[in-house]
Design a protein that fits this description.
Helices cover 78% and strands 0% of the residues. The protein contains 9 helices and no strands. By secondary structure, it is mainly α. The protein is elongated, with a radius of gyration of 18 Å. It has 2 domains: 1-31; 33-160, Globin-like (Orthogonal Bundle), CATH 1.10.490.20. The longest helix has 24 residues, at 75-98. The model has no long low-confidence stretch (mean pLDDT 90).
Length: 161
C-alpha cells in the first residue's frame, strides 16, 4: 500500500483529517516519485540481463545446485529457478514504486518459507539467490538509486533468513 493510501485509510479510520506529519510524508513520497519510477523502469527493462547475471553468480558459487541431484538440475528445474528470480525482481519493483515493503509482504512473502520447504527447495539457497539478484540489479543503478532499492532486496533476504 502506498504512503498516500495508508495516510488516507488511517485518517478515515480515526475520523480525522491527515496530520501535518502525515501530509509531510505524502509530500516526501511525491518528491521521490521520479526516482522510484526510474528504478522500477531500469529493473523491468533489464530483467533478462539481471536474471542471467544473478543465476551465473549463483551457479558459480553453488555449482551443486545445477549438478545431478541439485534443485536446479536439468532444463525444467533451471527454468523454474529463473522464473522465480523474475518474480522476485518484479516484487522488488512493486515495493519501490509503492515506497513501501507491504506489497512485497502481502504478495510474495507470506508462506514462502513453508512453500519452499514443502517443495524441498533449500531456503538458504534461495536467500543466496536473492543476494545475487540484488548484486546484479544494483550494479545497473546509480549509487543513489541503488541505496534506495537495496532495502527492498534486504527485506526479502531477511524474511527468508
Amino acid at each position: 500500500m502506498s504512503v498516500v493510501s495508508q495516510v488516507i485509510l488511517n485518517a478515515d479510520d480515526e475520523l480525522r483529517y491527515p496530520s501535518s506529519g502525515e501530509l509531510k510524508s505524502i509530500s516526501e513520497f511525491f518528491q521521490t516519485g521520479e526516482q522510484r519510477v526510474r528504478i522500477a523502469n531500469i529493473l523491468a527493462e533489464n530483467e533478462k540481463k539481471i536474471v542471467q547475471e544473478a543465476s551465473k553468480q549463483l551457479w558459480k558459487k553453488r555449482p551443486d545446485f545445477i549438478a545431478p541431484g541439485g534443485n536446479a538440475y536439468g532444463d525444467r528445474q533451471r527454468a523454474l529457478c529463473l522464473r522465480d528470480y523474475g518474480w522476485y525482481l518484479r516484487l522488488i519493483t512493486y515495493g519501490v514504486l509503492a515506497g513501501d515493503k507491504q506489497p512485497i509482504e502481502s504478495i510474495g512473502l507470506i508462506g514462502v518459507r513453508e512453500m519452499y520447504n514443502s517443495l524441498g527447495v533449500p531456503v538458504p539457497g534461495m536467500v543466496e539467490s536473492i543476494r545475487c539478484l540484488k548484486r546484479a540489479s544494483l550494479a545497473l543503478l546509480s549509487d543513489d538509486d541503488a541505496s534506495e532499492a537495496a532495502p527492498y532486496f534486504d527485506y526479502i533476504i531477511q524474511a527468508m533468513s
